[in-house]
Amino acid sequence: MRTNETVEVIYNDNQDKKIAKQFIKYAHSKGYKFRKLVEIKDEEQFIKLLSTAKKIISPRMHTCILGIILGKEVVPVIFSEKMYNFQQMYCNKHTDLTSIASNINESAEDIITKVLKD
After folding, report:
1. Nearest to 43 by CA among 102, 113, 94, 100
2. Bridge partners of 76?
């Protein structure tokens, strides 16, 4: 990520914004540069942003799941045993993400479509 690419750090509430700012400060101290801090206002904006991402780094399991469904490289931020297990099961380079996505893709697409219509 030490490139001129646009890196967006997103948040959807004040707690996430505070954590996002702390993350950016820490990353800057390590030489990483971020171009945008983006507030997510609705599900449609969130899905569109994820669909255009090259890589998704997140402590949120649902974001990681959507990233896998969208065929993105997903890097979970491990803060709990649940996220560690998720990373081991679904983000291991030896895991066939295509088969996982195909197993959950249909129902996830239905859910995403419903959310976007509402």
Report:
1. 113
2. 58
Distances 86 to 18, 29, 44, 104, 108 between C-alpha atoms, Å: 25, 29, 25, 15, 17
Q: Rounded to 5 degrees, what are φ and ψ at 2?
A: -85, 60
CB 88 within 8 A of CB 64: no
Q: Could you report the per-residue pLDDT of 78-95, keeping only the tens digit for each?
A: 767 877 787 788 776 544
Q: In the predicted model, is pLDDT for residue 110 greater than 60?
A: no
Using alpha carbons, list the distances in angstroms from residue 36 to 18, 30, 39, 41, 79: 15, 17, 10, 15, 24
Q: Is the dihedral of CA 91, 93, 94, 95 positive or negative?
A: positive
